[in-house]
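Chain A, query sequence.
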Amino acid sequence: MTAERKGTLFVFSASVLYSIGGLCMKLIPWSGVALNGGRCAIALAIYGVYLLAARHKPKMNRWVALGAAAICGTNVLFATANKMTSAANAIVLQYTAPIFVILLSAVFLKKRAGRLDLAACVVVFLGVVCFFVESLKGGNLIGDGIALISGLTYAVVFLLNDLPDGDPISSVFWGTILSVLIGLPFMAGQPPLEGTSLISMVVLGVFQTGLAYLCLTIGLRTTPPVTASLVSGIEPILNPVLVAVFYHERIGRLSLIGAGIVVLGVLGYHVLKEKLEKDVSAA
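Chain A, predicted structure.
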């Protein structure tokens, strides 16, 4: 197995672990910011053990700080959105990240967007419009808006390895500390966790945040940003399915159409781009 395929497998594993977040968050009676602080406190122990075992001293510079801000923003925004809108809306709107990766790469990394890139942006934008039309009816406009912003911060996470003098695991470490500090004031006064809610918090901290981010940072070493963000396509499919089965939360008809447009648009982009690259290599 090539290094790039191994990296892709790590990214895929991370997306599977991320997908349990929607269900676990719904089972915890805390606010989004407080919940995020709790899961990140648990994940921080996982990162500490990993850094000690790898003998990797966390770095700090402006690029690591930018990555840390992206990690923290993604954590806080998604947890908040998941409490304010449906899990399906939150994860699919966050899954606009590949489009933001294309745009950010073009603006900041000077990677020119092609016709296929622009077409994908238009298709995904149409899907996002469907969500916001539905949210106007259901009163979830703010939650959907927060979820969309989390797609932007999540896009920066996929670019961590491309940032000059960046260090993904250091960004994850500092971003997690920042998430805990932001969450601490909100954790005061929250109801005690017991039974299912306590187990859900531990699962979130150990697997959905801790091990998932470790898999992602390892995978990003050999996986291109756009490819990594597209491989994560299992998450917006598996996440709402788990919530629908175990929490009985349903997605509106128009949002369902929007989800199909977003997911198929992003995955279709990946398939067509790979085909074009093979044709160019063959020529």
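Residues 253-282 form the longest helix (30 residues). The mean pLDDT is 86.
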